[in-house]
From TrEMBL:
GO terms for molecular function: transferase activity. This is Glycosyltransferase family 1 protein. Keywords: Transferase. The keyword Transferase applies. It comes from the Bacteria.
Amino acid sequence: MNNKKVLMDISWSNKGGIGRFTDEISKLLCDISKEELYRKCASPLAPLGLAVNIFLRKKTDVVFLPGYIPPLFCSKKFIITIHDLNHLDLNDNSSLFKRLFYNF
């Protein structure tokens, strides 16, 4: 069997619903060879920082992102999780800044 090296972004760990998902999925993936990536989640520079971190990890095959912010660019295959989209449909659930961010 060809084992893949998975890089998992755990920056959301212990932070609300996404954090719970991150913690639980991390437990389920314990048999997979994974490397954990720590970063500041939801920072305006997070997509760029994430892309640089991924690029520097040459031995990673797949990147798993339990959060909702993809890297600005990515040199590896990656999996991103979509959690909730009601803020895109209902303006009352989002600020102007958030709407601009999500439409970017």
